Amino acid sequence: MLEELRITGLGVIEDATLPLGPGLTVITGETGAGKTMVVTSLGLLFGGRADAGRVRADPGRATVDGRVKLPAHLRAAVESRILDAGAEVDDDGTLLMSRTLTAEGRSRAHVGGRTVPVAVLAEVGERVFALHGQSDQLRLLRPAEQRAALDRYAGPEHEKLLGRFAELYTRWRAVEDDLADRRANARQRSQEADLLRLGLDEISRVDPQPGEDELLREEAQRLEHVEGLRSAAQLAHVSLTGTGDGDDVTDVLSLLSTARRTLEAQTSVDRVLGELAARLDEVATLAGDVSTELGSYLASLDADPGRLQEVYERRAALRTLTRKYAEDVDGVVAWADRARTKLGELDTSDELLEELDKERRRLHGEVAEVAATLSAARQEAAGRFAADVTVELAGLAMPHARIHVVVGPKPAGGGPTVPTADGTDAGVGPDGADDIELRLLPHPGAPAQPLQKGASGGELSRVMLAIEVVFAGVGGPPTLVFDEVDAGVGGTAAVEIGKRLARLARDHQVLVVTHLPQVAAFADRHLVVAKDTGGAVTTSGVRVVEHTDRARELARMLAGLPDSDLGIAHAEELLSVADREKSHH
């Protein structure tokens, strides 16, 4: 639930705070006062497209701040996502969100005081917020939106089936495209494969090993300088052990031993010398180890000219490969691995083509089977959906109207197809093999027409609201915003819309921007956006109206006469009717 919204520097709004709460909140005001900016700010807060042209020149920055109280059933999912972005939810389940937009078009988003990608706002918004306006009514005229509406209504198990179908369809099309490409480009693939085989054959004959070039470089350097290395190692070894040609060599190990024994003899007098003696013992042990390793090193030194020639030849062979395939031997080995993988992708053998064709046919059969199951599920959901929406239309002053949901096969149209139950082919896409069409029968005896042909603006508004009420019964976001969905409606129908919105608000937070007093009368909270004398909305431009002030606002909406006693009396009567209706239900 959205608890508070603050807007600064957006459109005609300089600085305004909207205190929000549960139930039905209506937002009213004169044309141009900034009602649309309220809806725009909500879209921005929840990751919508940013339009720098709406930013006020002074201060050149627009900011929307919102405080959202997450319901228990959504908290874990939302918290998991924002934790990934480095933000967190307050202990009481409150989430602070912010969106800033500059006049130059730069946009920044914050959640829980941390900067996050705007996409994080959008992901949170998908779970907690749904905006419905006149543009949404136009979207409902598109077949894809009608199919999405039916699939959403059908429930989570249906959505799982839809996901399984989309996965199967993607795999089938991938195999289909792969097979077609191998057949169509067999010659080019064969030529490319031959070049890769030549390279692999050359590398295979040399058989380079990872890191071999560096090892050979070090070995060549040792062989080239073997005499100098032997002389240095020999001198060091003699200095440590005293072994050599003369008898007067003083070795390090003997000197260390003498020093250690001398200090140990005085340990009883001063323990400090004992500690130093122990450290000399460690030095002697280390010197002995070095001496042993020097002996092994001397034994391993080989001045074999033949081995040096072998190393030179091996390095030359490796350099031939590195000139052609990579900068070093490790790169050559990696090139060979990639080439072997690529050869499998280029395979156009009859055996592989037959195997791919078999897989293609199997997947096509599964796609057709699941598409039929999906169609049957949509047929079943279509009947329930149409019945539920028709019931709601009756309560929206359209007692004789009927909604029909037609589920039919997609036209083949030259694209991928699947067989239908009657033996014909239907077009198929990632969302199945069905076309969905909502049709409105406005009264008995009239033909059922597609919405785009058979519904007026007012009827379309009510169909949209009826669908939203039906959706609310099967879940959906906790906060619903309606932007003048009552356009083109008046009289009894307006009262019925007010009733339905109040009913929707029993289980949801509902925010409604409206110009109809019949709708505003049903509000639990009434906000008025007002212009000051300069034509701009100030910090006091949005206020909560109650009691007499509320009646005056409804009188203004009814007849443009907020100070008329008759208008106020009419408004108070309207409020009384709305209160009775709400208490009755």
UniProtKB/TrEMBL annotation:
GO terms for cellular component: bacterial nucleoid. NCBIfam families: recN. The keyword Coiled coil applies. May be involved in recombinational repair of damaged DNA. GO terms for biological process: DNA recombination; DNA repair; SOS response. It comes from Dactylosporangium siamense. This is DNA repair protein RecN. Residues 2-533 form the RecF/RecN/SMC N-terminal domain. Residues 346-373 form a coiled coil. Belongs to the RecN family. One of its GO terms (molecular function) is ATP binding. It comes from the Bacteria. It holds the Pfam family SMC_N. Keywords: ATP-binding, Coiled coil, DNA damage, DNA repair, Nucleotide-binding. The keyword Membrane does not apply.
